Fold each of these.
Amino acid sequence: MGQPTPSSSQNSLTVRDNRTGKTVDIAIEDNSIPATAFKVLSANPEKGEREENETTKGLRVSDKGYLNTAVMRSEITFIDGDAGVLRYRGYPIEQLALHSSHLETAYLLIYGSLPSQPQLKVWEDEVMHHAVVHADAEQFFRSFRYDAHPMAILTSAFAYLGSYYSEANPSLQGQSLYTKGSPESFAVMDKQIYRLIGKATTLAAMAYRVRQGRNFVTPPTGLSYTGSFLYQMDYLGEENYKPNPVLEKALDVLFLLHADHELNASATTVLQTGSSLVDPYSAIAAGCASLYGPLHGGANEAVIRMLISIGSPANVPAFLEAVKKREKVLSGFGHRVYKTSDPRSFIVRKTADEVFRVTGKDELLETAMALHEAAMKDEYFIKRRLAPNVDFWYVFTSRLLPCKLNCSVLRSGLIYRAMGFPLDFFPVLFAVPRVVGWLAHWRQMMLQPGGVKIWRPRQIYVGETKREYVQSMNALRRKSRPHRYPILGEITKRTMLATFKGAKL
Ligand code: CMC
């Protein structure tokens, strides 16, 4: 504090509070400054200033929507949104998509390095071995209505799953269950990781089947992660049933691409929830709820609904005009981080080609193409650097994409549609692989140096200042003129007009 010193001025920020003339020197570490450093800048309130500003208690840092706030030191995923770079633990996503598998990448994301062959074998065996859920779970799934949104089912199912494992619950076993760093603590943590990744496909497949009125199937042995998932959704008693290998592989690539995306809304929600040291099942359920929203994982569903509502390429110009007037929402465009091409889009493009060769193309494609072309020429979108995001492009075929764009939401939607998944199941196909990323971030937070700090942000209170309670006019009226009717609760106009025993009209 005070005047900046020569040694600290090299890699530091000097801030002068013009209210008081006070100067603070804040160290810069990894190109960031701690927000708490501003707490020392307090001042006397200005004349008439609201006491709720708490000006004497130090300066607050406001950042609605976390536009420039780093909440973790992380070693997991790096995104350069301007350059279109995405790396998991240092490996470019393109290389992983080409050479790795979803489960191998999951190991990498969670534990920090690629597994050796024996490690991979143990890991895959453990995850697949934990796919089975207790037979009781059937009742849980059957309690949902036939038309329940599968994300509502999946979100609830993750929380429900936690109820089986009292040994995994810090509320029952002690707060330091996951933060101790002891061999026992690691073992408990690993087991919940196997269970959550292993059972994610099972829960999702059960959510799928309950809506189709189908019986549930036991997870098969001898199939890959996505092969088992497809089997659990589609098997109807056929002999030697095997999912189509092109679809199995395509799903595996899409899962790998969706496995993590740094501190997006759902990963942040998992950490926010996990920061109270709640069990990982509850934290994953919270992440799942966050992902469900149409600004995040629900976008791939929203894109298809939007394309259906546009109807044909001829309606695209009118639709875009409505978007610019903010009367309509253009789903699948824009991203908080990517301002250029989403590196995943090129892989998705290739995957889309492979899938469409097997399934045929989607009739929404022409509308999607027209929308893309019109938007990319339009000043409104160019100025705001709004390009199709990952969810948009999942609905396209490669021939459309000479793109220098950020693009996968659209494509995922069309690939999933081509594969015959129901629209509302698309976010589930995003949530299942994202369990991996959520767990990687959760594990990292549990083991971070210095322990877990509960995430408790500040607010800027702009509501009413202190005021005295005054009884409402209705309450006063009721006191002076008691009800004439011998019934409980508020009397509606309809009741006043009704006739019944005891009514005094
Ligand atoms: N259509 C039209 N205008 C848009 C769009 C869009 N899809 N997205 C952003 N804008 C405008 C926005 O109105 C604002 O304009 P102005 O400066 O005139 O007020 C400007 O672009 C900046 O947008 P923003 O809302 O400040 O950007 P953000 O970083 O807060 O939001 C976003 C990012 C992804 C929520 C947003 O772009 C959006 O709502 N997109 C549509 C939903 C979508 O596709 N979501 C999937 C994201 S990718 C997958 C994932 O990560 O889950």
Amino acid sequence: MTELKLPFFGHGGDYNPDQWLDRPDILEEDIRLMKLAGCNLMSVGIFAWSALEPEEGHFTLDWLEGVLDRLHEAGISVFLATPSGARPAWMSQRYPEVLRVRPDGTRNLHGGRHNHCFTSPVYRRFVQRINRALAERFGKHPAVVGWHISNEYSGECHCALCQGAFRAFLKDRYGTLDALNHAWWTGFWSKTYTDWEQLHSPSPIGEESIHGLNLAWKRFVTHQTVDFIRAEAEPLRALTPNLPVTTNLMEMFGGLNYYELAAALDFASFDSYPRWGHGEAEQTALGAAFNYDWMRSLKQKPFALMESTPSQVNWHEVCKLKKPGMHVLSSLQAVAHGADTVQYFQWRKSRGASEKFHGAVVDHVGHEHTRTFRDVQAVGDLLPRLKEVLGAMPGAKAALMFDAENRWALEDCQGPRRDMRHDETVLSHYRALKRQGIDLDIIDETCSFDKYRLIAAPMLYMLRPGVGRRLEAFVRGGGTLVCSCPTGRVDEDDLCFLGGFPGPLRSILGIWAEETDALYDDERNGMRTADGRVYTCGTLCDLIHAEGAETLATYTDDFYAGMPCVTVNRCGAGRAYYIATCPDAAFLDDFYGTIIPEASITPVVCGLPEGVQATRRGNTAFILNFSGTAAEVALPQGVDVLTGEITGGIAALPVNGYRIIRLKSKGVDAQNG
Ligand code: GAL
């Protein structure tokens, strides 16, 4: 793998000179404005296929060379894009197989973007050909520091080629139809397959009731996308082995298993569009923080913030402007969590088509005298002063499980509720953990557990092979594990574990979950702790029996009042907690407030006020005020990186204020990446 090693914090954005080739004056003005905004890194040529190959086999790359030369002269580096996110019309017209087919068998018309078949040999051939042309011509260009391949891979195709590839994938996975039929429990409703040709992707006009099939299809979509990515990157890796390859990933995206996809990339990059200004800033900030922690954890390396908006987007239901101070604060938030770049969609607003009113550094007015431009300049001034954190990692000792395959299985599960609230539950644990001022990694079932002292695994409904054993070893070795309802129900094919839930985790958790009650959205039960505190909970309530575990709290209501709802099982050198329900925030705050010190995890900052976030990169702490009001924080001992002031006492943070502190002591958890 080739590392992304920038000698500076990257600052810039998606740059589309291909839309302005008839306006050399504008292209020249762009360079002046980029320098003025402190920009040093542009992503060039995303969606530029029509300008690069206007007719089949006829390449027009001179304009791009001119742009790269001008950027380089101005000291600006480039992530060079491959254009496969959208195709020229000539290709769809001449080779309709490149167009995607829907689950009902209808082939799409030409249009939009991301509208291509990942299996089509024709599409793959065209993509490899243009990528080779780009790599041959620009692979050694001094401006180019990495490849931005395609754009936000997503979606699926159900054409005959994809059905064939799906069957091959299934043969490889299951070997025989007997094994497949057993794994998918096809005796139910007479679904037994007797010929591989009978297998077809899930469809609303066909089969959707076999959960094993639905899961296998989702796995295949990731497999096929990753296969396409590897094919797309092949000429780039062959011709430019020194240039790292990335593609931009999306917020909470569930269409692909990003842990598998990340393995095909050299570094992760991310598009971040939080709904600032809608609802509580704190909640929005937590969602953004979760995504950044996820992106950094995918490769356990710093990532690129590939896209964010410098002002508003054009696709939220209501597109709010960023309030004064929010642009700098939200950009710093990405850096605090591991971003080595701050980039925007987009550099300049397009004149026409669907994104002309999306925020950009340069507005249609065309000059620098705008609030947005000044905000971007402020980030451009700040980033070079943070060079000491470039490349550094937080060294988190706690991890939160967010497993794509588990999420798919739970979302497809029929009963005991339609919406199990998986994402809300994971985020509720994330919120409570972050309230304790600690750093967190986001992991999946395949990640190593070795470096953590605490793993929170809410709603780990599906346990893939060996995961129960690995979690047990983690606890016996001294780790703290937190599981919550519904845990350990099915195996990797969505077959229920026999012999009592939570299946392979039954002995380490020391409980048996006999039944699960589901609650309506407006229903609540209560939780009473052994020392008499009372909290509320909802969504799901497991009726559990302690089998060796100690009961820490019991339900207060319904016919199961008095049954355990929180337990701990001490095993070997560690502890395994089971939360049998979905508690409201007050419980999770107090719960993690107790068990984090027990697990010997040192917070970056103690006693954080609501809405203030603290994270650490290497030896530098970032304290960011998203509370929407002024706040007082007990700063850690150290030196303010921006002012040189010695810190240690209580400090006032204004609305959207921040402090960046080089820590005096490294603390037990701090490490450099
Ligand atoms: C991203 C996409 C960009 C642009 C942006 C608008 O998802 O990658 O091309 O459309 O959204 O916010």
